[in-house]
Amino acid sequence: MNIVFFMPRFFFICLFSMATWLIGGGCTLYAQQLRGPLLPSATFWDDPPRLMMLDYPDIYSTFDDPAYRFDASFTNVPLGTSETQVFRLVNRTSRPFPGLSVVFEGGQSGRFVLDTSGMATTLAPGETTSFRLSYRPTMIEVNRIELQITSADEEVYPAVGSITGLPIHRLTAWRETYFGSSANDGDGADEADPDRDGVINRLEFALNLDPRKPSKPSTILQTSELNGMIEFIYTRSRGALSDGQKFVVEWSDSLAPLSWRQDEVTESILSQTAAAETIKAVLPKGLSGARFVRLRVER
Ligand SMILES: [Ca+2]
């Protein structure tokens, strides 16, 4: 499917939507997936052996293990977004626990951010404190980190948490937002066009459009000529950028398959929101009397 815009002064701007994922600009809002915090609690056992224990969803320590081990996970977190969980510690004993600290003990700490700024350093009997752990994936991979919670009292055994992060593409979350399912099928399929505007879903996502409302080509791309230059304006989804999609403006004077060029194109950001950024590409209009410009979106 090609959409060709006839431009004044014999300029043509063409928008390609092909199997190889070619297209031009747009914008959409999609909900950032923020889940409610989980509130596991920790218990400090006073009887021998003294044990710092976290009650994390129905998992209990074995008392002969010198460290209490627990698991926590961040699942289905869209690339480029962040999810935060709050871990709560409760001292249920009759004695204070001094020098509390939480540290990473290996793994991919770059994907996780620990915030202990609000955490008490000494936890008196009956008191509660908490720390926060955030996960922000930047590529599709399984991320793991180990956390160690300790007290300066050496008789208090540490709690060691194995934390797992499981990211998803923003496109997957986008399908869920618009079609109620993350599955790549039916109306939500990448190649589907349920609003019948000629723009398939994965391009609707890339261009930040609403896949349920038809878009007019003239609202997807704006073009103009100024002082011998062509201005080509498009809007791209920041979520698509987080997914690693590339946006490339190309031009040709003949439309021949091997004639497309990327040189002499300069781009600048006109405006941006949390969801999208609008880009202006400028290139010479050339001397041949006609020039075609396209935006190629590729994964
Ligand atoms: Ca469509």
Q: List bound small molecules.
A: calcium ion
Order of neighbouring strands in the sheet with most strands = 4-3-6-9-8
Tell me the distance between the termini.
Answer: 19 Å
CATH architecture of the largest domain: Sandwich
Q: How is the CATH topology of the largest domain named?
A: Immunoglobulin-like
Give the low-confidence spans.
Answer: 1-40, 46-51, 55-64
Number of strands: 17
Radius of gyration: 27 Å
Series of secondary-structure elements, N-terminal to C-terminal: EEEEEEEEEEEHHHEEHEEEE
Envelope shape: elongated
- Please report the number of helical segments: 4
User: According to CATH, what is the class of the largest domain?
Assistant: Mainly Beta
Overall pLDDT confidence: 78
| Strand content bin | 35-45%
Largest sheet: 5 strands, mixed
Tally of separate domains = 2
Structural class: mainly beta
By CATH, the superfamily of the largest domain comes out as Immunoglobulins
**Helix share, percent:** under 10%
